[in-house]
Protein: tRNA-uridine aminocarboxypropyltransferase
Amino acid sequence: MTQSRPDFPDNMKQPNDKESRYCTRCTRALKACLCDYIQRVPNLAALHILQHPAEVGHPKGTAALLAASLTDVRIHVGEDFSDDEGLNALLADPAVQCYVLWPDEEALTLIQAREHLLRSGRTVRAHFILLDGTWRKAYRMLHSSPALLELPRITLGAIAGQYSIRKKPFEEALSTLEAGYHLLSRWEGEPVRFAPLMTLFTHLNRQWHDFAQGRRR
Structure:
């Protein structure tokens, strides 16, 4: 079962309801809200984040922050996406070429992905799919959906992840926010335009480290 979430609005620091202590935009506790550091950035290549239910509302998660920072992004929540009508319609759209970010031996570099588009001879728009979950859960999500397995895969190459507040399975493991930044800044060739994503990421890490240091005192 999946649930799609639309693009995030530009509203700032709005609680879910009168009793809530959480911001609906960055999904963090109001006292730890990061909306002051969120800058809306236009992206030409659409992103689709397939988010494991365990990551929804996770205080150290970054998918909601990435979604709040971009103009063309959608979060789909679930574990098995084989029956997700919206996602399957997208994958079958002849005007769209989807790629899933999954760095295995068969994955294309972004340069190779561009060549792949050119060789197709079609006028299509690239959409990128990111899996948001632990490495093990992301693997199960990918392999539960045959349509996802058939997509061409892409890799960002060796990039040392800077996500220091969660345990990483390997050095090059990136948070969803980091992956979105590196992917879009390289694909669209404008890293300066996407720099606010990493500024936000820096504030998230700093906030958690400050909190941890305060608890140790």
Observations:
- The two ends are 44 Å apart (CA to CA).
- The longest strand covers residues 125-132.
- The longest helix spans residues 195-216.
